[in-house]
Specification:
The chain has 14 helices and twelve strands. With about 425 residues, it is α/β, with parallel strands linked by helices. Bound molecules: nicotinamide-adenine-dinucleotide (NAD).
Length: about 425
């Protein structure tokens, strides 16, 4: 299994081979500013005490407060959180929003916890991290297995500790406590806007077939949006596996089936596939929307898609990336493809700080305009540099971070 932080550093190295950057800058941007690890004791429902490990990594804040989600997963560790924090710094720069990059996590399988235990754990994470958080310092958000409800508990815990009533320290909150219209589908929708802008450059037509790995916030919304926009969803999966139907699904039926049965297995008229098989299915567009390290040197030769949109973070290893580049299969990199989430999170933060509430139409229009503009900048850079979209996106992001860092004092960069 690839170490995600090593993968991120390999991507950095490749970008630096494409366009020269000062050595000192590259050294600095390769390390996070701060890594925090805490232990979180939780009294479980049976009265026993269980101790969980929690993390926050703050990578770079030259362009604004640290920003990035909190992941709850049994495999989450400091290396994963470091990689995700680094990608967040680049993502906020490529999306051109006034934020730096950070990420958090807890090593836990939240499905094994009761709601009461989950709330105690979430509040415990905030107590352990409170000193470094704040609307002008570090602004977390949801990620895998963290929900608007969890953000609400965290917001409440933080306001009790700090007295801050802006609610601007966490984004992805429910609307009632300052959440933004449009934040739920923002990552999937932003991904669609990026896809709409770039796919035509590579000859992908309306009606193309789409396979999606993962059907949580990102994958589930993407499935509905791509179907609505005239694409055919031929495969979709959750952590237990997926389903395939060559002539396409009605996505609302699949989501309703999963809600009722808790699984996709047995969906009428579909073939059951494993998550690995899903990646290798015949389709025009492949959308990994689950976890990292899914397309690797082991399965890359089997990929049949003509175009890949990375809605998950880090789903393709650097080795596999090179093979896809040689085979001329365009990959829209995570730091651009899934930047719609953090963009609308930033709108949420801005609304909270100004005491405003914007309409859904205003939020989505602004997202469309900004993400489309940045997608074209990355595409044009890839053409000018004769390179892939990932290296181009890294170059654009690194240039923006480097420019911001130039104005800092040497010893406080
Ligand atoms: P989620 O918890 O809502 O959903 C995750 C989905 O992945 C679930 O359907 C789960 O069943 C599935 N899954 C888990 N393990 C899997 C496996 N091994 N194979 C296939 N499917 C598996 O999480 P999410 O918010 O949808 O995040 C998904 C990805 O998108 C992550 O990489 C995350 O970092 C990234 N992302 C999320 C956001 C956001 O706004 N939520 C923003 C940017 C990037």
């Amino acid at each position: 299994m690839n170490n995600p932080f090593e993968s991120a550093l390999t991507q950095l190295q490749r970008a630096a081979q494409t366009r020269k950057f000062p050595k000192a800058f590259l050294e600095e941007i390769a390390s996070p500013k701060r890594e925090v690890r805490i232990s979180i004791p939780v009294v479980m429902d049976n009265g026993d005490m269980q101790v969980f490990e929690g993390y926050r990594v703050e990578h770079n804040n030259a362009r604004g407060p640290y920003k990035g989600g909190i992941r709850y997963h049994q495999d989450t560790d400091i290396s994963e959180v470091k990689a995700l924090a680094f990608w967040m710094a680049l993502k906020c720069a490529v999306a051109n929003i006034p934020m730096g990059g950070g990420k958090g996590g807890i090593t836990v399988n939240p499905k094994e916890l009761s709601k009461k235990e989950l709330e105690a754990l979430s509040r415990g994470w905030v107590r352990g991290m409170a000193d470094i958080l704040g609307p002008k310092k570090d602004v977390p958000a949801p990620d895998v297995n963290t929900t608007p409800e969890i953000m609400a508990w965290m917001t409440d815990e933080f306001s009790k500790i700090s007295g801050d009533t802006t609610n601007a320290t966490f984004t992805g909150k429910p609307l009632e406590i300052g959440g933004s219209e449009g934040r739920g589908p923002a990552t999937g929708l932003g991904g669609y806007y990026v896809f709409r802008t770039l796919s035509e450059k590579y000859g992908i037509k309306k009606g193309a077939t789409v396979a999606i790995q993962g059907m949580g916030n990102v994958g589930g919304n993407a499935a509905e949006i791509f179907e609505r926009e005239g694409y055919t969803i031929v495969a979709i999966s959750d952590s237990k596996g997926g389903i395939y139907k060559a002539d396409g699904f009605k996505v609302s039926d699949v989501l309703a089936y999963k809600k009722e049965k808790g699984t996709l297995a047995g969906f009428p008229g579909a073939t059951t596939v494993s998550n690995n098989e899903l990646l290798e299915l015949p389709c025009d567009v492949l959308i990994p929307a689950a976890l990292e390290n899914q397309i690797t040197s082991h399965n890359v030769e089997e990929i049949k898609a003509k175009f890949i949109l990375e809605l998950a973070n880090g789903p393709i290893t650097p080795e596999a990336d090179e093979v896809l580049f040689e085979k001329n299969i365009p990959v829209v990199p995570d730091i651009l493809a899934n930047s719609g989430g953090v963009t609308v999170s930033t709108y949420e933060w801005e609304q909270n700080l100004k005491g405003e509430h914007w309409s859904e139409a205003d939020v989505l229009k602004r997202l469309d305009t900004e993400i489309t503009k940045e997608s074209l900048i990355v595409y044009e850079r890839s053409v000018a540099l004769k390179t892939d979209l990932r290296r181009a996106a890294f170059v654009v992001a690194l240039e923006r971070i480097a420019s911001a860092m130039e104005y800092k004092l040497e010893d406080s960069k």
